Predict the 3D structure of the following.
Amino acid sequence: RYLDQLDYEERREIEINNRIIKLMAPGAECDPLSEEHVCEALGQLPDLLMIQIGEAIKAKDAEKVLKLINDGIHAYWGDIAEYLAEKELKKDMDDYE
């Protein structure tokens, strides 16, 4: 029974990850680099990340600024894609039953 549950959890995780990849692909619903999505994510960056970006700007470390912004944008859209992937999978499972 434990192995069946483990197998189920592994399959579920793989399915969620596959859906996240599809949702975040260029042109897809959660494409983090579309102009509109970049703007939305920038407006939602956590305060701590904004402080780190400010410190990197003061240090004139452009590479770090870009990395922090890029990571923040991808994290924001990754969270949304994960939520949507789990929601879609639940709906698919409910429809299946």
